[in-house]
Amino acid sequence: MNSNKWMNRCRASRLSGWLLAATLGISLAGCGGSSSSNVAPAEGEGAAAQEAGTATLVIGAYSVAKDALQEILPAFGREWEAKTGQKLKFQESYEASGTQARSIVGGFKADVAVLSLEGDMDKIVKAGLMSKDWKKTETGGMITRSLVVLGTREGNPLGISGFADLAKPGVKVLFPNPKVSGGAQWDINAIYGAGLKQAERESGKKDAAAAKAFLKAVYRNVESMDKSGRASMAAFEYGVGDVIVTYENELLARVAQGVHYDIVTPDDTILIENPAGVVDVNADAHGVREAADALVAYMQGADAQAVFAEHGFRPVNEQAAERFADRYETPSGLFDIGYLGGWDQVRSELYAKRGVWYQVLAGK
Amino acid sequence: MTNMLQSRWWSWGFRSTVMLYFIILIVCPIAGIYVQSLSGGFQAFADNITEALAWKSVLLTIKLAAISTIVNAAVGTLSAWVLVRYRFPGRSLLNSLVDLPFALPTAVIGLMILLLLGPRSWIGSGAEALGTTILFHEPAIVVAMVFVTFPFVIRAVQPMLEELDASEEEAAYTMGASKSRTFFRVILPCMMPGILSGAMLAFSRALAEFGAVVLVAGNIPGRTLVASVYIFGEIESDNPAGAAAVSVLLLTFSLLILWTVNLVRRRRAR
């Protein structure tokens, strides 16, 4: 009887022991994981693997680049192995550009960052994980180009030809929310820049007030500001809206999949440039510095550029650009981020706390 | 003596394990949000909350969550009634379907609403013919909230109905009460605690809904931007303090509601 009781208690205390262990386990996992529930390998593991003639490269990329990267990475792996005899394994993580940058800053041990905009690279540089020199390549650290273009229903029933048409009454416009999707800042930059161009043609000077008024007029017609460029396209394909503002490569990829869009390239639009760079601190810690440098160089080279071009991007490499020249026309009023004063100025003027974009939203 | 000591140890261990678990998983993160929201000082907190886009999104969220809660309280009570009181083929299947909204990723729910209520669908085109748009306007947000919080009221009311003593109802009839009188004087008071607590849970959940709403709301500030999406935007644009401030507003509101529910329940139980 007594022993029976004791047995019961014993079982109970063992149970509570398990509970305690489980709690601790969960809490530790919760604390240690922070924002990087991603695929960072243990450092020791990476070093050990390397001795055996293989290395693991961790890639933190923005989601739009996924399809192209999944072709480029294995090709680079083969080339690297032929050159050095070292086998490369890739761990890839695809997120929205801003999220990816934040998780790298927060401890995701990516060796190479492939992001949508320079501003997100700057976040990593500011955190001290990457040297400022990532821009010092032939292409300025950029691996792909594209344009901000307009997608309309088949046959362009509303006769949209440029950003000015988006401000016309009754036109329903879709673009992603630049606060939520960093990539959408390109879209807003394009509209704002087109407003500047217009003002420059009419009055001879880059009138910021006129550009803001133009942005406001377009914003009035916005039906939805989605979470991401992909979400905007999904909504458009379910029948919402008349025009979608997005990247040329995204639309080309959708058209290649058999979805019907008419792509309208405005005369005044912005040249998108997407960067890639080595996250120095992580690459050094993993001992994959050379492979990481080589990958970034490879992505800027002709082979990778051809693959990017197949996926609708415009090449940054002269050689590849010539090869695909007939596929892409360059609009007459094309401008780059420099026309708006560079990313620093754009960030402080447009997207700062009380910046132009806020004023447009708040109707001020 | 040793027995007592052992049992005291056991209960102490068990209690502290649960407390530790609770503190680490629930209390710490929530306290963290309060701390984060005040990280820039009280003035910054006040600025973040009085921000026009912020409070407008909170008000809109409360309004739409209230509408969806009313819908759910009414329809949920009816559904619970049907599921408990009637026997029909497919009842048990229907009963198990009730919990499905919890099992679906909310983004999938959002996609389904896009598909079913979009301008290409017959519901969407019908609404358009009547001069309103569902998708990317308030109705779509309410639909998303209703769908996501659907099980709460049903699951809270069901046990109340099952426990209801049939003799009470029969007594009412024998004493000559009409059907409606019996319902309102005997049955409804019985279900009321369930309806209330279910509705309040649904309301809290609706306030926080993100995944489905972000896909079907236009996310336009002042018109269709709900608090959760606003918060997400603030996080994405590197303003964690602003995000935390609005979260605190929602959290405090939810806490008050859940507390009230508890009070109401306890008073009923007495």
CATH superfamily of the largest domain in chain A: Periplasmic binding protein-like II
Mean pLDDT of chain A: 86
What's the shape of chain A?
Answer: globular
pLDDT under 50 segments of chain A (min length 5)? Answer: 1-17, 19-51
Number of distinct helices of chain A: 15
> What separation lies between the terminal Cα atoms of chain A?
81 Å
Cα gyration radius of chain B (Å): 23 Å
Count of helical stretches of chain B:
13
Q: In the CATH scheme, what's the topology name of the largest domain in chain A?
A: D-Maltodextrin-Binding Protein, domain 2
CATH architectural grouping of the largest domain in chain A: 3-Layer(aba) Sandwich
Largest sheet of chain B: none
Give a count of the beta strands of chain B, DSSP E runs of length 2 or more. Answer: 0
What structural category arises from helix and sheet content of chain A? alpha/beta
Coarse morphology of chain B: globular
Order of SSEs of chain A: HHEHEHEHEEHHEHEHEEHHHHHH
Poorly predicted tracts of residues of chain B: none
Helix-and-strand structural type of chain B: mainly alpha
Structural write-up:
The complex is a heterodimer of chains A (364) and B (270). In chain A, 49% of the residues lie in helices and 16% in strands. With 364 residues, chain A is of the alpha/beta class. Chain A folds into 2 domains: 3-144 and 274-327, D-Maltodextrin-Binding Protein, domain 2; 146-271 and 330-361, 3-Layer(aba) Sandwich (D-Maltodextrin-Binding Protein, domain 2). The radius of gyration of chain A is 25 Å and the shape is globular. In chain A, 47% of the residues are buried. Residues 1-17 and 19-51 of chain A have low confidence and may be disordered. With 270 residues, chain B is mainly α. The model of chain B has no long low-confidence stretch (mean pLDDT 90). The interface between A and B is large, with 38 and 41 residues.
